[in-house]
Amino acid sequence: MLLSASLFSKEIFYLMRSPKALLMGDAYTAIADDEYSLYYNPALLARNSGMSLTPLNPSFGLTNAYSDLNKFQNLPSGTSAASELANRFMDYPIYFSAGATPGFKMGGIGFNLFINNQSSLMFRNSIHPTLNLQYRYDRGFIAGFAYQLGNGAFASKKSNSSKTQYSNGQKLSLGFAVKHFNRQGTDSEYDLFGTGLLNTINNGGTSLSEIKSSLGF
Predict the structure, then answer these.
(1) Does 185 map to a domain?
(2) Domains contained in the chain, number
(3) What is the model's pTM?
(4) N vs C: which end of the chain shows fewer Cβ within 10 Å?
(5) Number of neighbours of residue 95 by Cβ within 10 angstroms
(6) What is the secondary structure of 68-129 as a DSSP string?
């Protein structure tokens, strides 16, 4: 009676994501030894031998609208367009992303540049329509190093023997990473039919940068 607790859930934003990790349900931290190692587990750089170069490594993401193509055909226009668009796309996520993360790995050293743009919007609440808008634009670099400690081994016993046998295994490794990036974006909700958004734009100035700033960019 004296205490209350509130819990809010929100999507986690990742800096960069491996397509292979997405296909594996993000069960990837222990085996992320591809070109995305630095974004998941820099200690896995210790497994790397030789040198590898990834000159571009682009990635793209888009809402899977194949089964809902009718939503995007014959879009409404005119004075009632906002209301009709809101009803048509109510609770339907529209998402787009594009990025690239060129880099190299040499032994236990790794380095990646990255640029990533993500946009998502959704109309919510059919009684009082609002637009949820999320936009991020990241660019920067990440660098890492990993070091192996000791000798790795697996211990096992045969069913007919009391002796323990050892076979070669992965070594213990420590990894470190640092990153630097510039992030621009916005994460806001806008009332489609209220005056709040209009007043914000009117009070923010006339240039595009001033309007974006007034909207929380």
Answers:
(1) yes
(2) 1
(3) 0.73
(4) N
(5) 15
(6) GGGGGSS---STTHHHHHHHHTBT--EEEEEEE--EEEETTEEEEEEEEEEEEEEEE-SSS-
Phi, then psi, of 176 in degrees rounded to 5: -135, 145
**CA 206, 207, 213: angle at the middle one, nearest 5?**
100
45 secondary structure, DSSP code = G
Residue 167 lies inside a defined structural domain of this protein: no
| The pair of three-digit structure tokens given for residue 96, joined into one six-digit string | 């787009």
The answer as to whether 69 is a domain residue is yes
Q: What are the Cα distances from residue 90, in Å, to 30, 42, 66, 121?
A: 39, 41, 17, 11
The whole domain housing 59 covers 19-156+172-214
Which amino acid appears at position 133 of this protein? L
Q: Give a yes or no: residue 109 inside a domain.
A: yes
Tens digits of per-residue pLDDT, 24-56? Answer: 888 888 888 888 999 999 999 988 888 999 998
